[in-house]
Please model this.
Amino acid sequence: QAQLAESGGGLVQVGGSLRLSCAASGRTFRQYSVAWFRQPPGKEREFVAGVTWSGDPTYNADSVQGRFTISRDNTVSTVYLQMADLQPEDSAAYYCAVDLNSYHRQIVRTNAGAYDHWGKGTQVTVSS
Model:
């Protein structure tokens, strides 16, 4: 199964942008839904955005507020999260996850417990 590695996090000032990448290795990736979750300091892990195997996105409106875009390029086995107009409340560890129950299904689950494989995370810190 796929192994995931996130990258692209860092320290950014309010209003800045970052693009997170989730690179997959292994035999299986492109047939499954992939999602981004984040866990701010002292808070629960929350769903940010997910994308089906065919590229249909789902967003957490409360988290994204129209500022984030999820996409995937299956030719290079990578899922992206483009983040714009970053705010302090966006500061969190961001994780990429794969839902093994989503094989060839047009479904994006928002429950972290539905995901079977996780990357190690990448830290995003937004400062003023």
In short: The chain has a mean pLDDT of 93.
